Amino acid sequence: MRQYLKYMLALPVGALLLGACSNPDIDLSQVDESRYEANGTPVAYLESKYGTTDIDSVIFNNEGKTAFIVKSSVAGKSAGQATLGYDAAVLEQYNKEHGTNYQAMPQDLVAIEAANGDTVNVSYKTAESLPQGKYAIPLSLKGSSVSKEKGDFVLLVDDISKMPDCHKESGLQVISCMEVNDANPLYNLCFTLKKSGKYFFDQVIMFSGNINYDAATGRVYNYNNENVQHLLDYKEKYLEPLQQKGMKVILGILGNHDRASIMNLTEAGAKDFALELKSVMDAYNLDGIFFDDEYSNPGNYPGFERNESSYNFSRLAYYLKQYAPDKLVEVYVYSGTGSMTEVNGKQPGEFLDYAIHDYGQMYDVSSSYPGLSKKGMILGSSEFARGSKISAYNCQRIVDGGYGGTMIFSLAPEHTDLNCMNRIASAFYDDEVVKTGSYSKDW
């Protein structure tokens, strides 16, 4: 393992020097020179692939890898030669300045390897002797033209390899439908059961992607705002740790204030949109789609069904399951998706996996989704941001009735009710919830 990697940064052409091997050109982007001590003089600085320049935190299971980019402060000018390596002094200084007590990951568990151009991969792994917890990997960029402010980096790596998964013996599901404009999906990993050590949550729904209309093509398509797209683009940081512990990661699909609706697609439109959703799931390794009929403005438009109907939506869900039989199809029991109908001789229960009730609703939905088993019915949903919480009585009703579980909406550090979560854990698993750490939105 190499302790340091050496760089020659030059614009527009640069080469990474590592033994006798050459690498592709380095295209370094423009940055604000005013942040640096020698205004106008090019200096090299270090940035993680997530855009941070001093400290970042990632979760890994057995092994992980984070990419770093060596950049120049002045586009078109060389920042000279620089080396990247593990440097324990960086962590000592960071702990001293910030009053922290991070422990360094042993250097023999870290590898620094050249990737492409100006990119370096920092890999790390666990060991049997390494206790469960968070460790720091101190990195330093060295050279005559390296930024004093942006040349050091502390990468925090949280090893969850020794943690059990989320699969509980009862099979009851606790679904977190998370408003990802405001919250970090990794926060779901902060909740475990005291006796079993299992993770409390079984699914995480990213709320929400959208169905949108493209006037130029006349097609509907999946649009994701900058928050949802960030999570998808960096799924190895925000989503894969959940999946590595058995949690299903689901993309919500919601109307977006235009004529496109999950309730008004023609048969051709339903097939087309279902294929696009399959492609999105495949591209980002997602486990399913959650449909919610809100915030659309449908009307009598060319290329759409004249009227919204449960059949139109059922047809969309049917085709999605046809195209992606190994993925979950879920629906919110609300508005137009409050019921579904037979499609091509198939009952809804044959192409629907979960029907998730609106806040506080506890009734059986067999008549609304024919063929759906009780295990697919998620009852008594809570809304933590607004104070709507399931009671202990209703938790026990879910268990006694043989239903599938419950849902919590808007979980976030500022919206966490451990009393409510313990009511669920007590009835579902004869256990209690332990909260460890916290993850806020960091993008």
Quick recap of the structure?
The chain is an alpha/beta fold and 443 residues long. It has helices at residues 88-98, 226-233, 235-238, 240-244, 267-284, 310-323, 392-400, 418-429, and strands at residues 4-9, 15-17, 44-48, 55-60, 63-72, 80-86, 110-114, 119-125, 133-142, 152-159, 173-179, 191-193, 203-214, 219-223, 248-255, 288-292, 328-333, 354-357, 377-378, 382-383, 405-409, 433-435.
Question: What report would you give on this structure?
Answer:
- This protein is of the alpha/beta class.
- Strand 13 (203-214) and strand 14 form a beta hairpin.
- The chain contains eight helices and 22 strands.
- Helix 5 (267-284) crosses helix 6 (310-323) and helix 7 (392-400) packs parallel to helix 8 (418-429).
- Strands 11, 13, 14, 15, 16, 17, 18, 19, 20 and 21 form a ten-stranded mixed sheet that branches.
- The longest helix is centred in the middle third of the chain and has 18 residues, at 267-284.
- Residues 1-38 have low confidence and may be disordered.
- It is 18% helix and 29% strand.
Keywords:
single chain; 443 residues; alpha/beta; ten-stranded mixed sheet; six-stranded mixed sheet; 8 helices; 18% helix; 29% strand; globular; disordered N terminus
Strand content: 25-35%
H-E string = EEEEEEHEEEEEEEEHHHEHEHEEEEHEHE
Helix content: 10-25%
Question: How big is the Rg?
Answer: 25 Å
| Tally of contiguous helical segments | 8
**pLDDT < 50 runs, ≥5 residues:** 1-38
Q: Calculate the mean pLDDT score and round it.
A: 91
Structural class determined from secondary elements: alpha/beta
Number of strands: 22
